[in-house]
Fold:
Amino acid sequence: MKPILTAFKTSPDRGRGLARDMPVRWALEEVGQPYDVRLVTFAEMKAPAHKALQPFGQIPTYEEDGLVLFESGAIVLHIAERHPGLLPAEPAARARAIAWMFAAVSTVQPPIVERERSLLLERDAPWFAARQPGLEQEVRRRLEDLSQRLGEAEWLDGAISAGDLMMVTVLRRPAGANLLADYPNLAAYVARAEARPAFQRAFADQLAVFEAASKG
Structure:
């Protein structure tokens, strides 16, 4: 039985591959695992049936042979552990790849999401202009550290891993991506990942959902 992934029926990212199902789609494509998608509306996401799968009423969820998972990072890790290609076989390298997954979602992502939230929701607030330099500085600190660590390497630690999938997903978020021009090695890192056939297939599939919803 193919795993089933839930995704937005009408994505608020307008097909840019920023929704949380994107890294899961990408991981499945990287390991060559076919999957099905169940599309959900915003109302359906908050309904009891979906919240039984995802207690916070979000996407994605992942169902396979009685297993139900939520949180994109946890799903990507599960896929990487079940299929070769996204985690090294050598134990220490495997542990480092998993550490990079946590670094992406726990260290690099929070200031990017906070800045993004402010740009989207707080523009009319009296403190908006005064708050922006501090928010940008926090994002730049993370990007600077990451840039120095990556250096001229192709990927974060040897071959591409689930750590890179999660990190690139975070860096593609608008509030981080619009600063990448100041970190050429990070911009090249993201472009290298986006050029991968597996990423291209995943991106095309989620874009097709948005385009179909727009026409319908």
Observations:
- The mean pLDDT is 95.
- The chain has ten helices and four strands.
- The longest helix spans residues 91-121.
